[in-house]
């Protein structure tokens, strides 16, 4: 096991900059008999239960109520039920509860339906992108992502269906949550009877409260709409319950957090009494790798099963695997859940006594100068580290093993994270606000203003895509059509362009594949086999064309799970692709696009992709020995991702779908193009930037 030490014990403590972090976190009242009570009794034991009447009173009497409470106190699952019991869903009114993540939407909806003894999709339902489990006549409590609620505003700008909207997990400050809060504040002026609940696991209540009190002064229109003063939101803090958690730090920094996490889990299993383990890693890839290593490691040591039940948890996980995570731990087993930061506050896992925190999470970062947005594995904030630690103290005193040194925690981790709004590409955000009639986007009532450079970049890209006109208004029909398609604007533009190229059949398949996480099953130790299998499907033109081969193979196999298993293809992802594709085909028909196939004309297909993604072009550096490309737009150094079929093939000119950054910027999902297509598709964008392609 890596060497850990407990602050305040065998080694002198470093001076703590952070005053709350004394090595032991104390929470207040102890929790009770997990697993033995009926659902009803469990409900009554949750900390929010004591506040039921207070919450209902505040919601009745205040337009906005802010509720702060420790993860697991019952905010998400209980408050919507209290509201329903109090009559907020009578008539045709609906109670909405938003979540930043799809997986938590599904999971909490299922739990609430179970608690209420109703079928999921009837009285309690949920909606996430491409999946609607509601029944318009009967659904009273609806869980949905914040992004879906934003989309609903396009059809119903005042969200008239809803009596109460609970914006949950507001501390996460997702880009959609921030947009939603600004828009809901506007809606409230027109619909004073609408009730908002903002719930959060951490105290950012003050800035939220100020936000809802202060009217945007520089817009005359708004002042006129609202002659009265804004009532300050009510704030309620739910007292948490939990046990102390001891924190251990590494004595020396770990060189490989994945290995370190695996060996820590094995040592906990050897040395510590019963209790489930929750490991925080960063994403699907390293989670699956750790699951595999633990399965191998556990067997190697003893030659037989170690009693560990190792389960992954990340968004995009199939439902059956999600259920395993929430099911009670079988007798004699110790559950090890390896999760992204989804288990930090969005989901409560019972039975966790040990937390292993790698200190990183995958975060989106955007640099408006280079116009590069990428997913980066970056250090978490101190606030996140504390949340992770708290997950160990739900059932009894717990331990948290931080895979970093105390000095690193104190000196390197920022105290709070940066809101997503301030580190994202704003293209989708701008388009959505424009579609909702918000023209002055910089003047919008932001909880935290987006960087003006990012805004300018977004406007530039949208203009070059023909989505906005010179006056920064949505173009008709393209701009409005793009806004209707619930995919990133570049994909939406690619779909619309496919009409003219006569390849809409193929393009919606590509769009559907790009919208699921990964269609390949990537198990550590099977990389060679996976690479060999990929060759079967690989097309010289690149990943998008290879996706079409996989899709065809899947259909020809009669959508067989066996076939997927044999070919290292994720069966659930493929089923999702078929489903999303079906929905897209209905959507584009509605937009007046005729489904047409280009058969084997991959040049046409690639041109259609390029019509949406011309801004993501890069060129192989001359004499580059290691496959280095430079983006045309900002001369940024990038490389083809090893998962791409073009990895090591390195065509001269490529278009990529997205960038992931670890040690380098990697282009994911890449196709080869001819540079003349760039100036053909987007002369206004490339004329001034690119030397004559004939010179290359
Ligand atoms: O939202 P908050 O973190 O305050 O708590 P919650 O998600 O409402 O969770 C309250 C209780 O419901 C916890 O004891 C959870 O373990 C339980 N729960 C569950 O068993 N299964 C779920 N899918 C969601 C919650
Ligand atoms: Mg919650």
Automatic annotation (TrEMBL):
Entry keywords, A to Z: ATP-binding, Helicase, Hydrolase, Nucleotide-binding
Positions of the Helicase ATP-binding domain: 56-221
Superkingdom, taxonomy of origin: Eukaryota
Residue ranges constituting the Helicase C-terminal domain according to the UniProt record: 261-437
GO molecular function: ATP binding; ATP hydrolysis activity; RNA binding; RNA helicase activity
SUPFAM superfamilies reported for this sequence: P-loop containing nucleoside triphosphate hydrolases
Name of the protein described by the UniProt record: RNA helicase
């Amino acid at each position: 096991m890596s060497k850990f030490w407990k602050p305040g014990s065998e080694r002198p403590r470093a001076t703590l900059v952070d005053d709350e972090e004394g090595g032991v976190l104390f929470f207040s009242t102890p929790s009770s008999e997990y697993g033995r009570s009926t659902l009803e009794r469990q409900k009554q034991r949750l900390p929010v239960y004591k506040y039921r009447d207070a919450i209902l009173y505040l919601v009745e009497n205040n337009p906005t109520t802010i509720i702060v409470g420790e993860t697991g106190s019952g905010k998400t699952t209980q408050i919507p039920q209290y509201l329903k019991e109090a009559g907020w869903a009578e008539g045709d009114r609906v109670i909405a509860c938003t979540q930043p993540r799809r997986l938590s939407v599904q999971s909490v909806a299922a739990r609430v339906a179970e608690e209420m003894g109703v079928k999921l999709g009837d009285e309690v339902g949920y909606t996430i992108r491409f999946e609607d489990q509601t029944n318009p006549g009967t659904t009273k409590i609806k869980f949905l992502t914040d992004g879906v609620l934003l989309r609903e505003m396009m059809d119903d700008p005042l969200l008239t269906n809803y009596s109460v909207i609970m914006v949950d997990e507001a501390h996460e400050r997702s880009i959609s949550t921030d947009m939603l809060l600004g828009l809901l504040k506007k809606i409230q002026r027109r619909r004073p009877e609408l009730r908002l609940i903002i719930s959060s696991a951490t105290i950012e209540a003050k800035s939220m409260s100020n936000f809802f009190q202060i009217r945007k002064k520089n817009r005359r229109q708004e002042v006129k709409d609202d002659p009265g003063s804004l009532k300050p939101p009510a704030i309620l803090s739910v007292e948490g319950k939990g046990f102390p958690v001891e924190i251990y730090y590494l004595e020396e920094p770990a060189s490989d957090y994945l290995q370190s996490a695996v060996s820590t889990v094995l040592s906990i299993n050897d040395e510590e009494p019963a209790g489930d383990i929750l490991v925080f890693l960063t994403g699907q890839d390293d989670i699956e790798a750790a699951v595999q290593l633990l399965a191998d490691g556990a067997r190697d040591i003893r030659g037989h099963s170690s009693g560990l039940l190792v389960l992954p948890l990340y968004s995009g996980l199939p439902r059956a695997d999600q259920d395993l995570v929430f099911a009670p731990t079988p007798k004699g087993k110790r559950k090890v859940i390896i999760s992204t930061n989804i288990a930090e506050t969005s989901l409560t896992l019972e039975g966790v006594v040990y937390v292993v925190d790698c200190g990183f999470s995958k975060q989106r970062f955007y640099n408006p100068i280079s116009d590069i947005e990428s997913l980066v594995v970056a250090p978490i904030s101190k606030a996140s580290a504390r949340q992770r630690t708290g997950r160990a103290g739900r059932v009894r005193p717990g331990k948290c093993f931080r895979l970093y040194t105390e000095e690193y925690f104190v000196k390197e981790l920022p105290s709070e994270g940066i809101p997503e709004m301030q580190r994202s590409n704003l293209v989708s955000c701008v388009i959505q606000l424009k579609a909702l009639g918000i023209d002055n986007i910089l003047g919008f009532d932001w909880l935290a203003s987006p960087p003006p450079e990012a805004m300018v970049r977004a406007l530039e890209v949208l203009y070059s895509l023909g989505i906005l006109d010179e006056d920064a208004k949505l173009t008709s029909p393209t701009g409005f059509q793009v806004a209707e398609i619930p995919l990133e604007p570049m994909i939406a533009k690619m779909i619309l362009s496919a009409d003219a190229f006569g390849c809409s059949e193929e393009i919606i398949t590509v769009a559907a594949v790009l919208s699921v996480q990964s269609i390949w099953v990537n198990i550590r130790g099977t990389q060679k086999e996976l690479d060999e299998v990929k060759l079967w499907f690989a097309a010289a033109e690149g990943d998008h064309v290879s996706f079409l081969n996989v899709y065809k193979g899947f259909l020809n196999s009669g959508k067989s799970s066996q076939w997927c298993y044999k070919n290292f293809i994720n069966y659930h992802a493929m089923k999702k692709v078929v489903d999303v594709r079906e929905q897209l085909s209905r959507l584009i028909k509605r937009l007046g696009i005729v489904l047409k196939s280009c058969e084997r004309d991959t040049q046409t297909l690639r041109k259609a992709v390029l019509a949406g993604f011309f801004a993501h072009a890069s060129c192989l550096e001359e004499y580059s020995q290691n496959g280095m490309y430079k983006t045309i737009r900002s001369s940024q150094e990038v490389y083809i991702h090893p998962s791409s079929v073009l990895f090591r093939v390195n065509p001269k000119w490529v278009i990529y779908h997205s960038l992931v950054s670890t040690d380098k910027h990697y282009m994911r999902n890449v196709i080869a193009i001819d540079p003349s297509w760039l100036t053909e598709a987007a002369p206004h964008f490339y004329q001034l930037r690119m030397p004559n392609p004939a010179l290359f």
